[in-house]
């Protein structure tokens, strides 16, 4: 009796392993480290547990740049993963590769897999960044955020200032905070994204010709216009007065905000999850980006940052069916709402937003809907749809360099922006030559 | 009579060096050739198309003032790291050489930092010097120094020089200590009898006798500063602020891997390669002549 049951067990185990071995495997390379990486692993594990035919292997490959570079190098060697997470500034490079057949566009993937994929379920401001000229989705939005103004409510109250809504008010608030003993009142991270790209979109100013590069590779930068130059000069002047302290290219200045040295900090809404854990000494919240009243009467809309999932060509069809199925899983309102609430990334489907509302998330965690409101403030215009410039990863570094020259007083804003535009245009021409 | 090994078979010696030759060809000559080749092409990131552009990648580099500044930065960085790491190591070695008690523990402690990977060494210093979190930055600010290496390029360069030198001191220390111990005590004792002060003894006897070690270390340190410090800069300043810490090897990386501009990156590697070959020749032809073996 006992022997039989053991035998049955063994037999079942054998079939089980047999089935597991037959699972089609999908490699998914991502750039989500730390807490975010754990959540991506959880998504993959949940999906694998629920699927009888597919196995998704999520692998962390370093930061956004490293992940993208690794995938491209792997592609050249014929060892590419099925799915790779690429940040928004890599979009032009991926699209150019798509024209040559390296990319399996998401709309095509879903069609081939027979999945009824409703593109309109996604937020327009998110999806418009990643569609082709015929409005077809090329990559699946996964984690999208937008810059917001984070503020230290306790410090503002102590200094007796209101939450600023315009740049004049930011300056005034910073001055009062400084008088009240806040060492470095104002700062930001990812400066090209927050102070040039989003500043421009927020005030409905184009960064470059050809609809910010969406309409053609022969685009040229125009962000050395008076509005942007004036804005950069304002921050530089605040720096001289001790109201602004620069703290690095990416998120390095986060430390300044968390330890209370900085009370007004512009950066991604996706810092929410981390702040909730780390900030215990004061009350913090987020609000929309300030408006430059000399440039516009009302804000347009913010543009996103973050990353999407691109599917690379060169694998078997059953595996692609799994990719489509996995994407379907990721787009579920539950998955999306969980991701949004835990991290501060934008809920990228309307359903996930509605679900979060129903669950009362915005009442328990006030301010967390700032990002989505900012993105859907108005219908995106050609200037506020996003940016699509080739070699933009490198161009962002040029902008970083030129801005740092302003913060350190080596150049004024006009000189720096002129230089950035000139150097950036040279790289745009190079990209055009290599990809046409 | 001279001792000579005679191979009976004429094939055997070639066979014995073949593995080494194969390694050199596969890992050195082949990549170098590929770098040389792609430096004449313009290529898209995924490698679908490449077009011959002649010397364009090179002319573009020399028209770029940033690239020329990078030469200067590399030179300052390399010389400072070599000087700092070698002089401190020599001082420590001389001191350690005189220690009688617990000598091994001192030596072990001094050799320790060598086990730290360059990227980690960078990160350690980066945290110490971080304007918001770092303890050293805090002391500096209390002492009235306005420390912010995110904005101040000279401070950033100083930071990476100190971090790179700190890591290399242990290695230099080992070699200097070995060098010191091989100097015959009788020479120094003779000088002492002639009433030479310790200072004079060091400069007229010890230091000249150390020149082979010093020369060897100079070559090693410069090569280290030029090439092996990439990880350190990548992990800390990423070449900034502006391009204050963007040394040549970091540029090769950022053009090739961040920018996916393989042609220009290859051209930079070729230039760097030429530079190292030239440097090595100069060192062996001119500097080595002054070395007493």
Automatic annotation (TrEMBL), chain A:
Oligomeric and partner information: The complex is composed of two ATP-binding proteins (UgpC), two transmembrane proteins (UgpA and UgpE) and a solute-binding protein (UgpB).
Entries under SUPFAM superfamilies matching the protein: Periplasmic binding protein-like II
Leader sequence segment: 1-20
Subcellular location: Periplasm
UniProt keyword list: Signal, Transport
Name used for this protein in its record: sn-glycerol-3-phosphate-binding periplasmic protein UgpB
Entry similarity comment: Belongs to the bacterial solute-binding protein 1 family.
Protein source organism: Cribrihabitans marinus
Gene Ontology terms: cellular component: periplasmic space
Role description: Part of the ABC transporter complex UgpBAEC involved in sn-glycerol-3-phosphate (G3P) import. Binds G3P.
TrEMBL record, chain B:
Function in brief: Part of the ABC transporter complex UgpBAEC involved in sn-glycerol-3-phosphate (G3P) import. Probably responsible for the translocation of the substrate across the membrane.
Similarity annotation: Belongs to the binding-protein-dependent transport system permease family.
PROSITE patterns: ABC_TM1
Protein source organism: Cribrihabitans marinus
GO cellular component: plasma membrane
Pfam families recorded: BPD_transp_1
Membrane-related topology note: Multi-pass membrane protein
Domain of life of the source: Bacteria
Residue ranges of every copy of the ABC transmembrane type-1 domain listed in the record: 71-283
NCBIfam families, per the entry: PRK10561.1
Chief location of this protein within or outside the cell: membrane
Name assigned to this protein: sn-glycerol-3-phosphate transport system permease protein UgpA
Keywords of this entry: Cell inner membrane, Cell membrane, Membrane, Transmembrane, Transmembrane helix, Transport
InterPro entries: MetI-like, MetI-like_sf, UgpAE/MalFG_permease
């Amino acid at each position: 009796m006992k022997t039989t049951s053991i035998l049955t067990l063994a037999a079942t185990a054998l079939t089980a392993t047999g089935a597991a071995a037959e699972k089609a495997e999908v490699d998914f390379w991502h750039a989500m480290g730390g807490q975010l990486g754990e959540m991506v692993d959880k998504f993959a594990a949940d999906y694998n547990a629920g699927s009888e035919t597919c196995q998704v292997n999520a692998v962390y490959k370093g930061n956004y740049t490293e992940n993208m570079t690794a995938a491209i190098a792997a592609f050249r060697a014929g060892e590419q993963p099925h799915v790779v997470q690429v940040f928004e500034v890599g979009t032009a490079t991926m699209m150019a590769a798509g024209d040559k057949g390296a990319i399996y566009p998401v709309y095509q993937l879903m069609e081939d897999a027979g999945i009824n994929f409703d593109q309109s379920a996604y937020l327009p401001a998110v999806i418009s960044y990643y569609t082709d000229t015929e409005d077809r989705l090329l990559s699946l939005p996964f984690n999208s955020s937008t810059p917001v103004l984070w503020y230290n409510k306790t410090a503002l109250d102590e200094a007796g200032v209101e939450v600023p809504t315009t740049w004049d008010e930011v300056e005034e608030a910073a001055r009062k905070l400084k008088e009240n003993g806040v060492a470095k009142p104002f700062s930001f991270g990812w400066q090209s994204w927050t102070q040039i790209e989003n500043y421009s979109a927020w005030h409905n100013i184009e960064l470059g010709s050809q609809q910010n590069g969406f309409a053609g590779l022969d685009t040229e930068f125009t962000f050395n216009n008076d509005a942007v130059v004036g804005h950069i000069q304002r921050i530089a002047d605040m720096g001289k007065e001790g109201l602004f302290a620069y703290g690095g290219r990416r998120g390095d200045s986060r430390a300044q905000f968390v330890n209370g040295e900085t009370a007004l900090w512009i950066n991604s809404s996706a810092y929410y999850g981390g702040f909730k854990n780390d900030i215990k000494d004061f009350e913090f919240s987020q609000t929309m980006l300030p408006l430059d009243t000399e440039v516009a009467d009302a804000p347009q809309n913010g543009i996103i940052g973050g990353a999407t999932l691109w599917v690379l060509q060169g694998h078997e069809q059953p595996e692609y069916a799994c990719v489509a199925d996995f994407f379907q899983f990721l787009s579920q309102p539950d998955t999306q709402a969980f991701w949004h609430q835990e991290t501060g990334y934008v809920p990228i489907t309307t359903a996930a937003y509605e679900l979060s509302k129903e669950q009362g998330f915005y009442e328990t965690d006030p301010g967390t809907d700032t990002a989505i409101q900012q993105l859907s403030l108005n219908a995106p215009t050609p200037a506020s749809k996003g940016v699509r410039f080739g070699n933009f990863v490198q161009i962002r570094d040029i902008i970083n360099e030129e801005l740092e020259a302003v913060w350190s007083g080596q150049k004024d804003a006009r000189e720096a922006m002129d230089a950035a535009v000139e150097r950036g245009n040279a790289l745009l021409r190079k990209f055009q030559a290599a990809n046409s | 009579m001279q001792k000579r090994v005679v191979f009976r078979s004429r094939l055997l010696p070639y066979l014995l060096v073949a593995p080494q030759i194969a390694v050199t060809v596969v890992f050195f000559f082949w990549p170098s050739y590929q770098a040389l080749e792609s430096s004449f092409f313009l290529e898209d990131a995924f490698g679908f198309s490449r077009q011959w552009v002649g010397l364009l990648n090179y002319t573009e580099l020399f028209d770029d003032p940033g690239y020329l500044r990078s030469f200067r930065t590399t030179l300052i960085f390399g010389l400072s790291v070599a000087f700092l790491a070698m002089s401190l190591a020599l001082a420590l070695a001389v001191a350690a050489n005189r220690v009688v008690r617990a000598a091994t523990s001192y030596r072990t402690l001094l050799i320790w930092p060598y086990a730290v990977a360059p990227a980690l060494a960078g990160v350690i210093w980066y945290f110490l010097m971080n304007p918001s979190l770092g303890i050293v930055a805090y002391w500096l600010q209390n002492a009235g120094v306005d420390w912010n290496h995110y904005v101040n390029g000279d401070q950033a360069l100083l930071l990476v020089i100190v971090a790179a030198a700190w890591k290399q001191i242990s290695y230099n220390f080992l070699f200097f200590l070995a060098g010191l111990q091989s100097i015959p005590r009788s020479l120094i004792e003779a000088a002492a009898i002639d009433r030479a002060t310790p200072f004079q003894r060091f400069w007229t006897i010890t230091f000249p006798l150390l020149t082979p070690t010093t020369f060897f270390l100079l070559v090693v340190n410069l090569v280290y500063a030029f090439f092996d410090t990439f990880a350190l800069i990548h992990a800390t300043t990423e070449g900034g602020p502006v391009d204050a810490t963007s040394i040549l090897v970091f540029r090769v990386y950022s053009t090739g891997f961040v920018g996916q501009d393989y042609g220009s990156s290859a051209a930079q590697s070729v230039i760097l390669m030429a530079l190292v070959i030239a440097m090595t020749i100069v060192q062996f032809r001119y500097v080595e002549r002054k070395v007493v073996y």
